[in-house]
Amino acid sequence: MATDNTYSNLIHQTFNFPQEGFEVKDDQLYFNDIPLMDIIKQYGTPLRISYLPKISSQIQKAKRMFNVAMAKSDYKGKYFYCYCTKSSHFSFVLDEVLKNECHIETSSAFDINIIKEQFQKKTLNKDTYIICNGYKRSNYKQNICELINDGFNVIPVLDHLDEIDYYKKHAKVDKVDIGIRISTEEEPSFTFYTSRLGIRDSQILDFYKEKIQGNPKFNLKLLHFFINTGIKDTIYYWTELTKCLSIYKSLREICPGLDSLNIGGGMPIRTSLGFEYDYEYMVEEIISQIKLFCVENEIPEPNIFTEFGSYTVGESGATLYSIIDQKKQNDRETWYMIDSSFITTLPDTWGINQRFILMAINHWDKPYIPVNLGGLTCDSMDYYNTEAHTNQVVLPKVEDKQKSTIISWIFSHRSISRSIKWIRWHTTLFNSCTKTCFDRSR
Ligand SMILES: Cc1ncc(COP(=O)(O)O)c(C=O)c1O
């Protein structure tokens, strides 16, 4: 019987739907034109899928936006898109990223092995920038020096005052480009004032004069900052950007080799169907503010590096679960039990209260009800019951024995876990034949 209060009507009336990457045909959800129910029939659940073309389209979109913004402002510097390996270190992700003339940011000793393997595979070369961030223990510094000594285009970003001593001793080449990370102030509501990452702004100039300036082996090429709360149109963001530009200017006056600014990651992604963000505006505003600052202070515009992690991979994946049972524990609350655990397969939901896009895959023609979603572990925190735009989760109401409602998640890199099956899309195969093709490797 036709009814108005269907799940389908709810989604269509609440959001601007269908939207990029999601549409519904015959009351079933399609993700980037892929019929998810067909995937589930073939592979079962729980299942995590990666739609690799989305990674390339995100990278191309960012490159386009920065290049257009630079052209509009007559900006003289260049734009470099770096991908941070910590966001997803799977080789099929790296392979896809590196199809797009990207550079790489690393944050641990293990990442250097990834660089070497990708070099063997010829997906990157010795012109690719390898920006080495993070606090570095000796293993990491040793691996960085191996890359430097092998002729890779490495920029270790100093996170600590003593870090350079290691490179002085172990880097055997004539010239080493280095960067410095500025320790930023946190937002006023945060539990501490200054980030533990990087070097205090008040120490940077003296540090440069003391340890770098007179040493012909080192060229301070890049200044890096990362604003933890992300790239947002807030007074806080613009104030921090201006502070970093002031440090850039002071350094640039005494360091002619300094020609690049790395503005870090933090480009937001959709975590709700109601997500609104004006990417073009933010990129144009960043570029025009930097340009204006440089013109006013008569310094050349720096090259701009970004290290977008979530933005690169976050919207390329989905996690699919089945509802295997339901429990009514009082008159108002219905629990839908999933065939997995949130704590182990989507740890962000529990650890940092991250919300994701959540949708039913089938039963869109059924009425909707608010539910709590329960994981299979006996940990009471293994549940999910709010979304980014509302304090509840709503899914189709299915009969007790109709245990087939499926939900889908867009996942962020921090949620990547190997505990459930991975499948990988071969774009070329997928595009060239009507059959869906997978490779179950790794
Ligand atoms: C130095 C640095 N760069 C880039 C990133 C990636 O950030 P996002 O995923 O917000 O783009 C992080 C995240 O922690 C980071 O610490």
Biggest sheet layout: 10 strands, mixed
In the CATH hierarchy, what is the superfamily of the largest domain? Alanine racemase
Bound molecules: pyridoxal-5'-phosphate
What proportion strand?
15-25%
Share in helix: 25-40%
Distance between the termini: 46 Å
Low-confidence stretches: 410-419, 425-442
**Overall tally of structural domains:** 2
CATH class (first level) name of the largest domain? Alpha Beta
Tertiary shape: elongated
Q: Find the CATH topology of the largest domain.
A: TIM Barrel
The whole-number mean of residue pLDDT values reads 88
Structural class: alpha/beta
Name given to the CATH architecture of the largest domain: Alpha-Beta Barrel
Q: With helices defined by DSSP (H or I, 4 residues minimum), what is the helix count?
A: 14
- The total strand number stands at 21
Oligomer: single chain
Offer a concise description of the structure:
With 442 residues, this protein is an alpha/beta fold.
